Amino acid sequence: MEKSKLQLTSETNTNFWNDSCSVEELQYAIENGAVGATANPVIIGEVLKKEMHLWKDRIYQIIDEMPTATEDEIAWKVMEEISVSGAKLLEPIFYHQKGKNGRLSFQTDPKYYRNARKIAEQALYFSSLAPNIIVKIPVTKAGVKAIEEATYQGVSINATICFTVSQCIAVAEAVERGFKRREKDDKDISSMGPVCTVMVGRLDDWLKEITNRDDIVTEPAYLEWPGVAVMKKAYQIFKERGYRIRLLSAATRNHMHWSEFIGGDVVVTLTHQWQKRFNASDVEVIPRIDNPVDQRIIEELSRKFTDFRRAYEEEGMTVDEFDDFGATSRTLRGFISGYESFVSVIRDFMLPNPDK
């Protein structure tokens, strides 16, 4: 049988992960070469919509088993069980690849984004749920501190809510500090597999929002390249400095958010919809990670967008400025809203609406 394009991608240095923990979608992804998956409150809410028949009875059981629990506590318990079920499907890959892949990402509470201690404590707990859990930590000021501490505690982290070269470097340095502390204390790091996510599509989204807000006129096609430019620049820096963490792309908006990263020792996360599109496409599977973005695009974006310069330049932002970056606050607000929407689903199980 002829291999799919995603299977061919996985035969380069590039891996892909499924951007969901849906059982049905994850099984399709694994068949096509996926070696990981991800979850967060928004994703898990979508999973429930698609697979409520698999979880409805269990949710009622959890409510009965935890008679004094709040709706938030029930919600996190449900998210834990859905995530662990996805992680189970990936365990054979995890053991075969000795921890580099085969992991399921589980996100810390987005409302903790200012509290390094709470983030690190939750990361340590989530890591204990299954051997192949990788824990998502936001790249905020507090998140960077939590990444170092969680790494030192042996947690494989997935840095998320990250859009800029300076954030990627801060994550890589925090992971290195955590690794060095572990090595100093003779603690093993051989099976750890940290990644740093670049939400390439969300950076593009943010600059398009600025275009409309500030009435900026630029070549429309140029606005499909900011996330690619950041990912490629961060990748070159990571290679030059020998950081022991891989980059991961997320928030796919066009085929370049997959095709331009082929060949790199990176991870590309793809939704089920994008996987099917790419497998059916005529995009050639060839290495492009080292192909530079057209300098005219870089110059135009740098001239017209302050936030592109903040995203692209190595010292574009300090750690103290991470929380105020537009794409960061926008995404955090979306994740918090997604969590609250998920809790409302659990509320309907616990307190059925009498008016419906």
Give the DSSP E fraction (strand runs of 2 or more residues): 5-15%
Can you tell me the overall shape? globular
Structural class by secondary-structure content: alpha/beta
Terminal CA distance reads 51 Å
Mean pLDDT: 96
**What series of H and E elements makes up the topology?**
HEHEHHEHEHEHEHHEHEHHHH
Low-confidence stretches: none
Q: What is the CATH-assigned architecture?
A: Alpha-Beta Barrel
* Radius of gyration over all CA atoms, rounded: 20 Å
**What's the CATH first level?**
Alpha Beta
Task: State the main characteristics.
8 strands, TIM Barrel, eight-stranded parallel sheet, alpha/beta, 356 residues
What can you see in these coordinates?
- The chain is α/β, with parallel strands linked by helices and 356 residues long.
- The chain has a single domain (8-350), classed as Aldolase class I (TIM Barrel).
- It is 55% helix and 10% strand.
- It has helices at residues 5-10, 23-31, 41-65, 71-96, 116-127, 141-152, 165-184, 200-213, 226-241, 256-259, 272-280, 295-304, 306-312, 326-350, and strands at residues 15-18, 36-38, 103-107, 133-138, 157-160, 195-199, 246-250, 267-270.
- The chain has an 8-stranded parallel sheet.
- The longest helix is centred in the first third of the chain and has 26 residues, at 71-96.
- The model has no long low-confidence stretch (mean pLDDT 96).
